[in-house]
Write a structure and sequence with these properties.
Distance between the termini: 32 Å
Strand content: under 5%
Number of helices: 3
Radius of gyration: 12 Å
Low-confidence stretches: none
Largest sheet: none
Helix content: 55-70%
Length: 67
C-alpha cells in the first residue's frame, strides 16, 4: 500500500535516474544489475522518508526498452 500511495514520487525519481544513464551501461548483465540496485535504493529511500520503513526488498524489471 505504501508503494501505491507514493508511486508518483517513486516513478518521478526513477524516470529522472534512468534518463541520466548511457546506453553502454545497460548493455551488460552487470550494468542492468547495477541499475536494479540503484532503483531499489531509490525506492527504499523514498519509502523510508515518507513512512519510516524501507518497504521494498527487491526491484524487478518486466521489460527493458532502450532508445
Amino acid at each position: 500500500d505504501a508503494i501505491k500511495t507514493h508511486l508518483p514520487q517513486i516513478r518521478n525519481n526513477l524516470v529522472m535516474m534512468f534518463s541520466n544513464l548511457d546506453y553502454a551501461s545497460l548493455t551488460t548483465a552487470e550494468g542492468k544489475q547495477a541499475i536494479r540496485d540503484k532503483a531499489l535504493v531509490e525506492v527504499q529511500t523514498i519509502l523510508k522518508e515518507e513512512t519510516g520503513n524501507t518497504g521494498a526488498e527487491a526491484v524487478y524489471f518486466t521489460s527493458f526498452v532502450m532508445q
